[in-house]
Structure formats: structure tokens, C-alpha cells
Amino acid sequence: MAPQRNVFAWRPRIPGVVEVFHAHFTEYAYPMHVHEAWTLLIVDDGAVRYDLDRHEHGTPHDTVSLLPPHVPHNGSPVTPYGFRKRVLYLDSTRLGEDLIGPAVDGPDLRDPVLRLRVGQLHTALTHPGDELEAESRLTLVGERLRAHLRPRLVAEAPRRDPALARRLRELLDERLVEGIALDEAARLVQAHPAHLVRAFSSAYGIAPHQYLTSRRVDRARRLLLDGRPPGDVAAATGFYDQSHLTRHFKRLVGVSPGRYRSSSR
């Protein structure tokens, strides 16, 4: 079997995310190196063995590994079949340098909820137009990472805040087409992004990005029934492109926009 070195890397339009990196390696081994950013790593197939601060660690598929900036590490496959990994590189606006010490002491986190959330975050990052979802998921991932690294500093569970949730809903309604970044919304309503997401989800039983997408799809339905083509409808309802509209429309309505439009009488 020929050695595999397949990579896919990009920089999303999400504040604090320096790079997204997906890779499949078989025989390749990383030499000792450092990063300026935090490295948030999950392995989907296989396993990785690495040294960090002269201690050996491993990343099986059920683990989230957080490697701090400026600390040398390497990496190599555990089996001949190599590994598939997904990595986020995060700057200090997401995780502060005060967390470097705890991360060196315990970089591998066995937390099924965190593992699921990181995977969901990667999925959101692969779809242009889903920035609000990616920002929301990244905020909750960062909160959970800090809870692992500084457990005694974790705040109590946020209380219900229907007034705050209502203010965010009004913002989402006002920005239905152009959208709004989570950080901007948090600044406008003077709330922490994580608290804002939790308050909205608690009040309405749906995350902010799900609410926004639902409203956009609902408006798209009306325009399609007016006879407008799906491409025009996508632009008029805030979707990145027609494929972005189609993906969410089929998920929420059960059929494609074109089929829905043709069903009109």
C-alpha cells in the first residue's frame, strides 16, 4: 500500500480560528516542532502517539487533545494504517496563555460530549454560510475546554434569561438576510457569547443558528411558491448559495427547493 499524505486546509471566517486542517497520513511522522496557536485535535481513524514536554501521550478516537502554543511536540501513527485527524488551530482570544500549564499537564481529554461538540464544529466549518453555527459551537467548546483545565474556576450554570433571549431573537429577525456574528450580537446585548447561546436555547428550545436557518427556510418557501427560481431565493433569504439553501431546505422540509417549487398549484 502506497503511503498516504492527503490534506485539506483552510482559514474560515470565524474569529479566533487560525486554520482548519484535515489530514490522512500513513507513514508520515512529525518531527519536534511548535505552533504559535493552540492545537485542538481529534482522530477519526487510527491513533497518534506524540511527545509533549518530554512526556509520551496518545490520541485514540475517543479523545480530544489540546496542545498548547510554544510547547514542542511531535507525532507519529501508532499502526501501519496511519490515522485520519481533524485539527483546529486557535489563537489566544479563544484560550488564554494562563491555560498553557494545565494543558501541558493533561493534554488528552476523554470527554464524549466534548468529542461530539468538536466534531459538530468541524462539520459546521466545512459549510460556507454556517458561520453563526460555527461561532456558537466554538464558544461552547471553548467553555468546556476551560472547565477541564480550570475546573475550580467554572461558573455556576447560567440562569434563565428570557429578556436576553428575546433581544437576541429580535436581532436575528432584523438581520435575517445579512446575518450577524455571535460576537457582534453579544456586544450589542452586552452579554457573554456562551451565556447568550445558552439563554436563547433555554428560552426557545432551539439554538440561535437553528432559529435563523428556520426563519430563512420559511421565507424561502414563500418565495418559491411565488415562482422565483431557487438561485434567486437563496440570495434573497441569506443563504451562501443555492447548494447551501438546498441542504438546509431538504433537512427542514423534506424535499429540494426545486421540487417544492414545482409542487405549487
Helix-strand pattern:
EEEEEEEEEHEHHHHHHHHH
Determine the fraction of residues in helical runs and give it as a percent range.
40-55%
Given the C-alpha coordinates, what overall shape results? globular
DSSP helical segment count: 10
User: Largest sheet, order of strands side by side?
Assistant: 1-2-9-4-7-10
CATH-assigned homologous superfamily of the largest domain:
Regulatory protein AraC
What is the CATH topology assignment of the largest domain? Jelly Rolls
Overall average residue pLDDT = 92
- Identify low-pLDDT runs: none
Number of domains: 3
Total number of β-strand segments? 10
CATH first level of the largest domain: which class? Answer: Mainly Beta
Q: CA-to-CA gap between the ends? A: 57 Å
Could you tell me the radius of gyration in angstroms? Answer: 21 Å
Pfam families: AraC_binding, HTH_18
Protein name: AraC family transcriptional regulator
Keywords: DNA-binding, Transcription, Transcription regulation
GO molecular function: DNA-binding transcription factor activity; sequence-specific DNA binding
Give structural notes.
It contains 10 helices and 10 strands. It folds into 3 domains: about 140 residues, Sandwich (Jelly Rolls); about 50 residues; about 55 residues, Homeodomain-like (Arc Repressor Mutant, subunit A, Orthogonal Bundle), CATH 1.10.10. It is about 45% helix and about 20% strand. Helix 2 packs antiparallel against helix 3 and helix 7 crosses helix 9. The radius of gyration is 21 Å and the shape is globular. A hairpin with a 2-residue loop joins strand 5 and strand 6. The mean pLDDT is about 90.
